[in-house]
Specification:
Keywords: Membrane, Transmembrane, Transmembrane helix. Helix 1 runs antiparallel to helix 3, helix 1 (about 10-20) packs antiparallel against helix 5 and helix 3 runs antiparallel to helix 4. The protein is mostly helical. The chain has one domain. It has helices at about 10-20, 25, 30-45, 50-65, 75-85. It contains five helices and no strands.
Length: about 100
């Protein structure tokens, strides 16, 4: 399954699931040793290019460092990509009222 080709709604659902996996370390702390590199790899599979690599590094650090597991990195990346990204497509007309 190619995660980059998922619809934005499916990416959100997958991201929520991956964020939930990160909370397992509250119950079983050694899980971070497996989940930190896995979350970074999965982030690069969900989001391509430079922003995916940066998000992967942030995801790895967030999962590897203690007490940062509460940050929903995958959900924040989805919000950045699909809600807050200001990158305009070429030729797009901006209507200012």
């Amino acid at each position: 399954m190619n995660l980059q080709n998922l619809s934005k709604n499916k990416k959100l659902l997958v991201g929520l699931l991956f964020d939930a996996f990160g909370y397992i370390s509250f119950i079983f702390p050694p899980f971070d040793f497996v989940w930190a590199p896995a979350s970074a790899w999965l982030m690069t599979k969900l989001y391509q290019g430079k922003k995916g690599k940066i998000a992967a590094a942030i995801s790895f650090a967030e999962e590897a460092l203690p007490f940062l597991d509460v940050i929903p990195t995958f959900t924040l990346m989805w919000l950045y990509t699909f809600v807050f990204s200001t990158k305009k497509k070429e030729g797009q007309i901006i209507d200012i009222d």
